[in-house]
Amino acid sequence: MSKRSNPAVRIAQETAHNAVFDAEGKPKPGVHNVLLRAVEIQRPFVLAYVRRLQRKHPRASAAKLAEILERDYLRAVTGGGAIVGATAVVPGVGTVASLGLSAAATVGFLEATALYATSLAELHGIRLTNPEKASTMVMAIMLGEEGTALLGTLSGQAMGKGANATQAWGNVLSKSMPTGFGAVRNRIQKAFLKNLLKRQGSALFGRALPFGIGAVVGGAGNLIMGRAVVANAKDAFGPMPDTVPGELKATAAPENLTLEGNNLGS
Questions:
Q1: What does the pLDDT look like over 234-265, one tens digit per residue?
Q2: pLDDT tens digits for 102-118?
Q3: Under a CB-based contact definition with an 8 Å cutoff, are residues 60 and 54 in contact?
Q4: What is the pLDDT of residue 155?
Q5: Whole-angstrom Cα distance, residue 15 to residue 5?
Q6: Percent of the chain with pLDDT over 70
Q7: What whole-number distance in Å separates Cα of residue 111 and Cα of residue 117?
Q8: CB hemisphere CA count around 93 (13 angstroms)
Q9: Which are the contacts of 116, defined by CB distance < 8 A and separation ≥ 6?
Q10: Three-state SS for 21?
Q11: pLDDT tens across 156-170, in order?
Q12: Distance, CA of 266 to CA of 262 (rounded, Å)
């Protein structure tokens, strides 16, 4: 005997889809702007975040701080998806209200991703003083190989794995404004929005599912996407430096302290 479909699930999915896309299946006006603003981040905020981690973990090496960034990032995006999905079981929170929280969770995922990616860049000695370059880097990392290959065209070399990858990112992003940056940014932005709406579409529907199902779908979906971001970032930046670089070094542990996660440590 075949299982009966739940009409509430179908209604939730249709409501979620209609809130984001028009009758032709294209994103409604304003959706793109909201998503693009979510990946914008200012460097002072990133530095303050990394320095707070350094004060909390004064003995941590660059590699150890990267591990902490990864752990906190995955906890944040996974918890966010699960918490929003769980609102479907709260009396008085209907499908439309739940959908609104789903959209907020999508933006929250992007904001957490932007903070993680730019913080990791700083630990690699890449100073992202230009917000446009910072958001372009975040979008490229979320795209994976496609995004890093596009960004790599600015430096005239392919961005593979290893030390050369970090050097290529640094060369591109440390320039005041590389030739052709605008055109490459537009290509990355277009691919990012297309890819994000395709991936987040199912996650958005999942968080709008009733009866607590959304808590499972939302948290699991965010974890999968978060792990993909972490893998992409590691491939893009390459190995961690041996020491904390740049102006962050002044906040690191004194030289007479043994650093956690450092090969020189006991």
A1: 988 888 988 887 677 655 544 444 444 443 23
A2: 677 788 888 999 999 99
A3: yes
A4: 66
A5: 17
A6: 62
A7: 10
A8: 18
A9: 69, 70, 73, 229, 230, 233
A10: strand
A11: 644 444 445 555 656
A12: 9
Residue 237 tokens read as 């930046």
CB 56 within 8 A of CB 252: no
Nearest to 83 by CA among 229, 228, 212, 230: 212
Q: What is the DSSP letter of 2?
A: P
In the chain, the amino acid numbered 164 is: N
pLDDT attached to residue 255: 42
Instruction: Name the H helices within 124-212.
Output: 131-143, 145-152, 163-173, 181-207
- The pTM assigned to this predicted structure is 0.78
Q: Is 48 exposed, middle or buried (0-12, 13-18, 19+ CB in 10 A)?
A: exposed
Q: Report how far apart, in Å, the C-alpha atoms of 134 and of each of 38, 116, 140, 173, 174 are.
A: 12, 12, 10, 8, 11
CA distances from 208 to 98, 112, 113, 139 (A): 6, 21, 22, 25
> What CA–CA distance (Å, rounded) separates 100 from 185?
29
